[in-house]
Amino acid sequence: MTASLDRKWRPSLGLIIFVVLTAVTILPLVGLFFFRIYDNQLIRQTQAELIAQSRVLAAIFAEEVTARLDDGIVLGNEVPVEARPDPSDRLTPIPPALDLAANDLFMRRPDARPAKVQPDPAYVEIGARLMPIIVETQKVTLAGFRVLDPHGVVIAGRDEVGQSLAHIDEVAAALHGQYRAALRIRVPDKAPPPIYSISRGVGVHVFSAMPVVVNDRVAGVIYTSRTPRNIFDHLYQERAKFVLAAIAVALGTIVIGLIFSRTITRPMYELIDRAVRIGHGDRDAFRPLRHYGTREFALLSRNFLDMAEQLARRSDYIASFSAHLTHELKSPLTSIKGAAELLLDSLKSGSEGLTRGEQESLLSNISGDAGRLETIAQRLRELARAETIDQRERAELAPVIENLRDRFPALRLETLGGLDRAVGMSAEKTLIVLSHLADNALRHNARTVRLAVARAEAVVRVEVSNDGDPISEQNRVRIFDAFFTTRRDSGGTGLGLAIARSVMTSHGGSIALLPAAGGVAFELRFPAG
Fold first, then answer.
1. What are the E-state strand segments in 400-505?
2. Strand 395-396 to strand 422-423: parallel, antiparallel, or no bridges (unpaired)?
3. What is the 3-class SS of 164-231, one letter each residue?
4. Cα Rg for the chain, rounded, in angstroms?
5. Is the pTM for the entire model greater than 0.70?
6. By CB count within 10 A, which of 193, 232, 356, 377 is most buried?
7. What is the dihedral of CA 309, 315, 316, 319, to 10 degrees?
8. Are strands 154-157 and 163-164 parallel, antiparallel or unpaired?
9. b/e for 305-325, b at 16 or more Cβ within 10 A?
10. What is the rounded CA–CA span in Å between residue 134 and residue 152?
């Protein structure tokens, strides 16, 4: 069994705790690799801001165009029916839908091209009116704004005025009445730090093309762009909080480690050390642990140490009992062997052998010693049976005492108290205990045995006293020892009181010798039935 345990690898408790604490420590660092989720949120936030800003400019643009319809201003492409909003809808929001993980990044935005046709002076005038609004807005939002006419020519913006952007995909879609946004690779002014490679959102640009619709026709496009907020800039701005969080994680890990060590690891290793010491016969190892840690471990260790101590006591008892039993069996066996050898020599010697009286004496000795061996064997069977426990055992005292009267007619039994009390022990074992006390009294010249029954909490107390010979002071401490007897010549085995104590102890009861002015008195404490 030990070899099979050694072959199979099992992690130690310390290794498991180390792995758990390491995982707790590096968990925040692992979160760095999930920046893309936060990147995506920042990109959508940027797109939502561009949608809001361009929609305001588109409304102003549409008002300017509407005011010039009577002057013959020319509109662009008709908006397809499927792209037109439902007139019954009061709200037509445009949700941000860019996804850094799902959308392919376009190459950097193509350069503007020369316009094929010059813009209408009316649109140039509108662009000039919108330019102050664009400049003021750009100061706060940091976004890039370009206002396009129905042909995709820039009529307002800081750069590319008079040039065409109609060839760009998102602008081309907007010129046909559909809002479109795109993520494009951004070429930075200077090389970013290496750590920026963790985040894909650092090197992209968000472009938004909002169509300006008047009378279901495209009057122009608000083309906006902006770089999403840099996640590392955000982390840097919040660096104090992140440092505090890192310190909190480190301190938390240390605290968790100390708690694990004090409540689990240290008590566990101490209990293992106790088990090893107990295995080597160190009786000092039965002392309670210095520290238990948890309620469950305290219960486990106490039960373990109690069990180990009980097994050690049992082992000592078996060793002592075996030594006494060997001594008790040796005397009658030696006597029987010697008598048998004398009888055998007498038979071989013929007329010079033993007389008939001597032979009868030897045979009488053999019979007496055999009877003593039989009595010892019977007592040993009772002792073995005494330690078997049935949790459902229950007996009333009245019928047990009546059986005791029948078994010892030479004794006068007096009872006091309620004999209807039930004890948590079978009638047979209760009778065994009382019989040994009665037999012990009879062998010590008692004529009367008195039983006084009283009920205490969870126990039934029975005081058994007799008027026989008192027990001397030097023998009082030995009367419950196996094979100790002062009546060996009258057939005493010294097992009676040992059996009585074994029965009581194994059933959760007790037996004790009480001080008495005359005679002998015992106190039996039975578990209540």
1. 412-416, 422-423, 448-456, 459-466
2. antiparallel
3. ECCCCHHHHHHCCCCCEEEEEECCCCCCCCHHHHHCHHHHEEEEEEEEEEECCEEEEEEEEEECCCCH
4. 52
5. no
6. 232
7. 180
8. unpaired
9. beebeeeeeeeeeeeebeebb
10. 18
Q: Is 88 exposed, middle or buried (0-12, 13-18, 19+ CB in 10 A)?
A: exposed
**Beta-ladder partners of 156:** 147
**Please, which residues bridge with residue 455 across strands?**
460
Residue 74: Cβ within 10 Å count: 12
- Calculate the alpha carbon distances from 471 to 183, 441, 516 in Å: 106, 11, 10
Collapsing DSSP states into helix, strand and coil, what is residue 153? strand
Closest CA to 14 of 252, 264, 254, 256: 264
Per-residue tokens: 509:
């009861």
Rounded to whole angstroms, how far apart are CA atoms 166 and 151?
A: 7
With CA atoms as reference, report the closest residue to 144 among 135, 154, 152: 135
Evaluated on CA atoms 490, 493, 497, 503, the torsion sign reads negative
Per-residue tokens: 277: 């010491």
In whole angstroms, give the CA distance from residue 191 to residue 435: 103
SS3 at position 426: coil
Tokens (6 digits) for 166: 């109609």
| Token pair in block for residue 203 | 């090197």
Number of H helices, E strands in the chain: 14, 14
First to last CA, the chain: 43
Cα gap 379→495, rounded to integer Å: 7
Q: What is the pLDDT of residues 284-319, one digit of tens each?
A: 888 888 877 777 778 888 888 888 887 777 676 666
Sequence-separated (6 or more) residues with CB below 8 Å from residue 513: 471, 476, 479, 480, 520, 521, 522
The parts of the chain modelled with pLDDT lower than 70 are: 1-8, 10, 13, 28-38, 101-105, 186-203, 230-235, 314, 316-328, 331, 350-353, 379-380, 382-392, 482, 486-494
Interatomic CA distance for residues 468 and 200, integer angstroms = 103
- 177-189 burial, b if ≥16 CB within 10 A, otherwise e? bbbbbbbbebeee
